[in-house]
Amino acid sequence: MAEKDQLVSMLGQTHPGMEREHNEDAIWMDSSLGLAILADGMGGYNAGEVASGMAVACISTDIRIKLDPLNGSKKDPLETTVQFYERLLQQATLYANQEILETAERQPECQGMGTTLVAVKFYDKMVTVAHVGDARLYRLRNGLLEVMTKDHSLLQEQLDSGLLTPEAARYVPYRNLVTRAVGVQAALDVDVQTLAIEEGDIYLLCSDGLNDMLTDEEIGYTLESAITSPQLAIDLLIQQANDAGGKDNISVIVARVEGEVVSTNGALDWLMPWR
Fold this sequence. Notes:
Number of helices: 7
Number of strands: 10
Low-confidence stretches: 1-6, 263-275
CATH superfamily: PPM-type phosphatase domain
Largest sheet: 5 strands, antiparallel
Shape: globular
Radius of gyration: 18 Å
CATH topology: Phosphatase 2c, domain 1
Structural class: alpha+beta
Order of helices and strands: EEEHHEEEEHHEEHHHE
Mean pLDDT: 89
Helix content: 25-40%
Oligomer: single chain
Strand order of the largest sheet: 1-10-9-6-7
């Protein structure tokens, strides 16, 4: 296969924060695949670290195998490219869910572990997003920052019902109570969506250790630095979250859409989304 232009650049970093002894977050990214995964583990002594690590390992491995032209699964002829990638991310997340559950059953010290998750797959003019829990995906486009995922949390439910205002929500003590997580129960509802991407878009995957410490306005202002220097934006976001208290682990991945985004043509497009 011919050498392909890299259309999305990715950088990431994770930090334990200022109050936690262990870092239970995990990140993984591969620009050549257009794939990035961020997980925020929870439960048990160090078990959160096991759950998040298993999630990124299971999902990245499952997707790489299925995208391998020699070993991968074939696309249903009635399935669109978007449907294929949405199914791909959903099934990979469900696979991670089952593996984490089975590990917890075999190892008593891991019982009760789980992880929140956000994963993205870029291809053609699209990005497919899989999301469980309160790890987030932000998009910065033409100076406007938007949250592209909705938290699966008690706090979000109360915001949706009008019981809390966004201003009051920043001060409630139960911000981290999630209503959905990977590896907690056999039945898992994975939120999957596909978004159109544009040249110059900047996407931020983050654990709640970032957005619990910084407002969206602060995140957006700092993320503007990624236009010229993604690494600077990452360093600043982590430093600012720590300066604000660093009460949890902090993980960020910045993905920047570079150059012209072009659609591919041909019978094997679903296997070769980048050219």
